[in-house]
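Thread title: Can someone regenerate the structure for this chain?

I was given the following input by a collaborator and told the matching structure tokens would be attached. They weren't. Posting the sequence so someone can regenerate them.
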Amino acid sequence: MKTLSRIAAIFLVLAMSLALFASCKPAADDTGAAKTPGAANSTGGEAVQTNGELVWTAQTAPIDLGKGAQAYEAKYYDGKLYYQGYLETGFDPETKERLGGQTIELRCYDIANASYSVLYSYTGQDYPQFYVASDGRFLSFTNQWDDTTNTSATTLAFSKADGTLSEPFTVPVSSPNDSWYNCQIDAEGNIYLTGSSDEVAVYSYADETGFTLVTKLTPKYRYVSSIAMLPDGRAAASAFNNQNEMVLTPINLEAKTWGEDIVFGSNINMSSGFIGGSGDYLLYFSSHYQKMMGYNSATKTLDEIFDWFDLDMDTNSSKLLTVLDDGSFQGIYMGNYDELTHSQSYELLTVSLQPKPAHEKTVLTYATLQLSEDQRVAVLEFNRTNPDYRIKVTSYGEELREMSDLSAILLKLNTEIIAGHFPDIIDLTYFPAAVYSAKGLLADMYQFIDADEEFSRGQLLEPLLKAAEIDGKLVSLPLSATIMTYIGKKSVVGDEPLTYERLRTLMAKYPEAAPVGFSTKSNLLEMIALTAADRFIDRAAATCSFDSEEFIGLLELCNSLPAEYQDSGLTQSEMMNSVKALYVQDSIYDFTTMQFYKKTWNDDIVFAGLPDVGNVLLSDANVGISAKSEHQDGAWAFVRSTLKNQADGKGYVWGFPITLKAFDKWLEEQTTENYTIDENGEQVLQSRGGRGEGNNDVVEFYAASPEDVAQIMAVLESTTKMLNIDGKVMSILQEECGPLFAGQKTAAETAKIIQSRLSIYIAESK
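Best answer:
Regenerated them for you:
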């Protein structure tokens, strides 16, 4: 759920008896007949002419891994891929009973022969993971949760020389609450386990003696996660040291101790496991920010090898497994998912240096704090299909470990702006649109919409467009929306427009009630800073009025609340039903929020909006176009393509779509009941999910009623503004209200200081 606390935090802080085959052999046609992959397809476009320079390029070729393949967790050994396949067992046609579990297969795909075989098959209720050793033998790793004891148990079984699987061995834990969840095998067959305790346990296996503990290393650091295999054969555990730097610490098995740390640095966020190095590079891995990184052991630096965006590839769908002798990378790319057959297609991915095209597309710069999933897909689609332009993304948030210092990010971006480098496209979700608009940096996108021969304002959801306007201009376009609002019981708070003055009146009438569930001084100040502070700023005139009686009154209202949340032991709904709170703050992105409160409050609800401003629009993708860009046509082509894809049902949208076509389809889906067939072959109504609080019953969600639709439309139509935050204003308000909340200054004195500081800031911002 997207709540105010999440937004504020971002802004302020930011896998037993079948034999093991000795080698891979082509399987029968019905389980994966040998096939030759098609010609490699370069996803980066055709290069007819080159200028001699080499650039990283991705090629993919389809591969048949069999039904139910789960190849994204594949392992690579000597030209073969080892992965799992899941086959549904279905129903017993006579008894109509479900058969237990699934058939899980360990498969081997020989890349040179383009065929796969089944090495091992298991049917049961648990789901083992398989890890393959360099000699072709494998380990079965199973982690089962016991609902009775609320503990998990990890069992290991190793393939023996005769091809059978050993008896399961339960791995002991240091305490009942601990669990093991990561596994790795080295070239000697040693098994490395990491888990919740941050310990690393190492076991060996022999057919004669079974599993033997080699050593258990106590934690050196916190958050020990994956085990990487270094080129010299040593295993190393990844963790974060006391300086919050990501490190790899080798394990000295002979001495049974930790080795010397290999420091990767801070602000590192992995999105995949390590793969072996080549040349000067000890290891490679993909970062969360679409980068392929390599640790250079000669320079002891973490270098960017390539950007997945430059290859027109999504790192979320790409997994590199090995480095080939020629220095190129090889791995797996997830293709299309077939909803009808519930099957995933895979492609063999090769990333290599190829001649750079002599004639390239014009590059558009795109600035964002953190690229949302729908925008990631949109950028990749645009880069693959647009003949004239491609987008280069800069994620300013990738320099932060925890998005806790927005001011540092803004300083860097603003420094670049001052130097004349405002991006062609900017994701304004986390950046101050009002400030940039006042400086004339953002173009009014109405001019592009109105000039478009195939697109018009009438194809967009008008209430959301109006809410997004700043001074009558559409300088930022929300591609989707959620609505932030206060929700109250109509019998208690009525249905009059909510203002801060009315909030004071209600607080006086119900003195034991918090204005909003779980309210504190700082909570209300946050809300004022997020939604009301801009009422006291005239950016056109570069003035402000934070010393006004109205603002002083707001500070006094904040100061009347408790400094810390007083836990009553009640849920939000219980607080509302007993009038211990007047409102709850929540976000509306479909009909589930409404159905939850209607059920828990006996239909006695009113969407009041936020004090003085009404309902507020939030968006995960809120784009703007530079007024100074020399390529506004290309920037608009990108924005237009995202709107068209949304209207055509492509991509993922969180909340309400901005295009009418997508909204109408969404509304049809929301008002259509879902049904499923039970074990008796009967059609039954299927819940869309549920929500509960504390120990209360879960409220199940179903299709929206006409009344629900009318109420949601009323909420959309009464949405008056979009959340555009100036981080500097929020920071100053929080800093200067500290003494007020501590009883060291009055509201009037605090307002005077805030006015002085913000007057300077507003003047400098013009």
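Residues 247 and 263 are 4 Å apart (CA to CA).
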